[in-house]
Amino acid sequence: MNEALEVLDHVRLNFSPTGLFALNVVIAFVMFGVALDIKWQHFKDVILKPKSAITGAISQFFLLPFITFLFVLILNPTPTVALGMILIASCPGGNVSNFMSSMAKGNVALSVSLTGFATLAATFMTPLNFAVWGKMYLNHYNASGAGNYLVPIEIDFMQMVQTVIILLGIPVIAGLLFSQYLPKFTKKIKKPIKQASILIFIAFVIILLSANFSHFIRFIHLIFLIVLVHNALALTTGFTLASALKLPRVDRRAITLETGIQNSGLALVLMFNPKIFPPELELGGMTFIAAWWGVWHIVSGLAISGLWARKPLYQTAVQ
Is domain 2-309 given the CATH code 3.40.50.300 in the classification? Predict the structure, then answer.
């Protein structure tokens, strides 16, 4: 399998500096739209009723990276594919998770609270998780006899922190301030901005696919099952932990989707940041994983949300 996957490292996705700048703007706009729905009360609720929120945070920032690390050890793909999977697992929840939680009849308030908390926490946790698990994986790979991975990937922790703060932290704080000090104006723009941000993000994914359609057609079979299984593990992690702790069914659905819907756009921006990953590095495996995840988690999330939407909620029943 490794010989086939190595081909990906020599493929460069068509992603111009203009396209990268546009993706930065799209992610910032999406995060601003998400933050308009976040109230300070949500953070207060997390403090007063912390069990579900803590479960979601543990699932996303601790269990998912750990399980991903175990998965790449078992799968033993090429280093760039493995690092791409670890970076995806280190990112916060994706921007469509709140919409999917609503569609699935989950706890939307919990979903929004988790999104807000995870987005702010990601300014530190995303670089930390990638630095820790990425370094552990490279050390294991080089010591396993599978061969030395000679590409000098040095994970610039502070540069990643800086990038994530700009892309996530600033837009979210701006959205929170809008919601706090301009409530009437926020009420008018909140719905259209959230709808527009989701549509723009999906459109951007489609544009990325169309610009690289020949690459995806040629190589998608190499990573399709990897992303499918990885995403299934992410969704299962959230659901299993929430179920084990006997959380209400509405909370289980929200935590499942928050864990399984990752911000793959942020992962792509980090991968294309020359200060984090120098352009001379051949990291096609990483970019393919992140790009296809951006498509697949929408498919899987909508499928699960659609199934749950037709399944009645019985709050007293144990699922």
Answer: no
